[in-house]
Amino acid sequence: MNKREKIIEVHDLVKRFGKFEANKHLTFDVNRGEIFGFLGANGAGKTTAIRILCGLSKPTSGSVRVAGIDVNKNPEAVKKRIGYMSQSFSLYNDLTVKENFRFYGGVYGLSNKEIRERTAFFLDKLKMASFENMLLSKIPLGWKQKLAFSVADIHRPDIIFLDEPTGGVDPITRRQFWEMIYEASDNGTTVFVTTHYMDEAEYCERVSIMSEGEIKALGTPHDLKEDYKVDNMNDVFLRIARNVE
Amino acid sequence: MLPIIILIPILQLLILSYTATFEIKNIRLVVVDHDHSPESRNLINKFSGSKFYKYLGQKDTYKEAENSIAKGTADQVLVIEPDFEKNLLTERKGNVQIVTDAINGSAASLMAVYAMSIINDFNGNILVKKLPLKFKGIPVKTDSSFWYNPDLNYITYMVPGILVLLITIIALFLSSMNIVKEKELGTIEQLNVTPITRFEFIAGKLIPFWIIALVDLFIGLLIARYWFGIIMAGSPLLLVFVAAVYLILVLSIGLFVSSLTETMQQAMFISWFVLVVFILMSGLFTPVESMPLWAQKLNLINPLAYFIKINRMIMLKGSTFSDFHNDFYILAGYAAAMLTFSAIKHRKTS
């Protein structure tokens, strides 16, 4: 694993909302090209942390470097290097499939030629070329999620952040979605993913498990299962969540 | 959505222009004639012949006539004293009484003015007909001519104002709903993680609505010309130029509201509140000059007041830029300030 440079470096990250500490001294690194699972129960502080990593929210203290750039000092520079797909589905329903690609391609400053090529590439890969002129509102949810992932990848970012990308999606589409994640990772894109599905956690190279604003465990799924002497990630998660009480 | 944005203003323009009038027509008149003489009938004929009056007939007693006002079936009562004709000829003075339903104060004063002018007219005739030798002539006679709107046609006066109102409504509502809608849908989050700058963002929000509102204005001007027959006295290009600047101001206010609020409901409420106050104070329906001083001062920040004034000047008076350049500069400075504000207010990082 020595081939890897660090693409995300978080050191002593604290985020407070008033008196409430949503993130308590988080410290972790993510390597380039890694699939990093960011797990935790609802309200554990995952979304807060991911928003800080993407430059949507400022940390109260601590340092966060994404793609070698200090997010706190230069969030806009970070935004050029990352793709983001959020919990709530966030392409435009009143635009067609193609128009959504066109719009985000334009926002990221791609040339018309690049936009055409990337759109064709993704639609071909998703076998959705015949739907390119269909309004997004008419497309089933699972397909939309795959489109949203592709749009997040349109400008070939270094890192893609996926915030619960497979919520409400059927198992087959979920499997296809993870194939897309693997493909991106093989091409050198780092994938930072939050999920509540523990089978998905098994697909990650390393996972961290958050609870009450702290990272309670961090390692490969294999190591974590050994540490907690259980045979699946679900039990690891339950152990950690129970220890809290 | 686009057909709605184009069609609704056209309908509003057609409906409002015909209905937003202050002319009082068809005043329902009841007469109590205690004299029953040729002169009293002459006076009654003057009223019933006027295009402003609808003569309902006579009542025997004042009590009955007053009842019809109380019931709301009549607006005005004309009471003619007994011996009206006799007094007129012998004492050169006949008495009539006008009673007006004053539930709407400004309408009542207009009705009273109409009645007075008919009676004055009647006086004039008497002076000429019956007493030609005793007077050297008619007292001072005023002849008025009305500039810019010679027929005193309310439609001519209202259409330019209503046009402003319509493009303002379109621009303010489209823009104030827009950013907040993206907040509700969550798409704003997606935009905030892109390297889009706040000025690009605001420009992207502003330009489409700006074009739509200008198209609406253009259609409205065509309707004003070819449906209402208002021939624009000034330069249409000048009007479009002022409108273009004005719309940037209105759109910026809308975007400002939109970035200030978290839900469409809040945005809707604030824009309605702002719009209704601006409209009522703008001088569209009531003259600004008759408002209290503080209200006139408040109009300094009312974009509608500036543009309705300028629009009427261009369309009806044929004013040129130098006639209103001060108002225009205020409008332009205001637009620049609000645009900057709304861009600053839009934050990508919380």
Structure description:
The complex is a heterodimer of chains A (245) and B (350). In chain A, helix 5 runs parallel beside helix 6 (171-186). Chain A has helices at 46-53, 75-81, 97-107, 112-125, 141-152, 171-186, 198-203, 221-227, 233-244; strands at residues 6-17, 20-31, 35-40, 61-66, 69-70, 82-85, 159-163, 190-194, 206-211, 214-219. Chain A has 245 residues and is of the alpha/beta class. Chain A is globular. Chain A has a single domain, classed as Rossmann fold, CATH 3.40.50. The longest helix of chain A is centred in the C-terminal third of the chain and has 16 residues, at 171-186. With 350 residues, chain B is of the alpha/beta class. Chain B has two domains: 23-129, 3-Layer(aba) Sandwich (abc type-2 transporter like fold); 150-345, no CATH class. Chain B has 13 helices and four strands. The longest helix of chain B is centred in the middle third of the chain and has 32 residues, at 154-185. Classes of the chains: A alpha/beta (245), B alpha/beta (350).
Keywords:
heterodimer; A: 245 residues; alpha/beta; Rossmann fold; six-stranded mixed beta sheet; four-stranded antiparallel beta sheet; 9 helices; B: 350 residues; abc type-2 transporter like fold; 2 domains; four-stranded mixed beta sheet; 4 strands; 7% strand
Give the largest chain-chain interface (CB within 8 Å).
Answer: A-B, 25 and 15 residues
Number of strands of chain B: 4
Shape field of chain A = globular
The number of strands of chain A is: 10
Label the structural class of chain A.
Answer: alpha/beta
Unreliable segments of 5+ consecutive residues of chain B: none
Query: Major sheet of chain B: size, sense and barrel closure?
Result: 4 strands, mixed
Largest sheet of chain A: 6 strands, mixed
Oligomer: heterodimer
CATH homologous superfamily grouping of chain A: P-loop containing nucleotide triphosphate hydrolases
Strands ordered across the widest β-sheet of chain A: 6-7-8-3-9-10
Instruction: State the helical fraction of chain B.
Output: 55-70%
Count of all domains of chain A? 1
- Number of contiguous helices of chain B: 13
Helix content of chain A: 25-40%
The CATH class designation of chain A is: Alpha Beta
* CATH topology descriptor of chain A: Rossmann fold
Order of helices and strands of chain A: EEEHEEHEHHHEHEHEEHH
The overall number of domains of chain B is 2
Give the termini separation of chain B: 32 Å
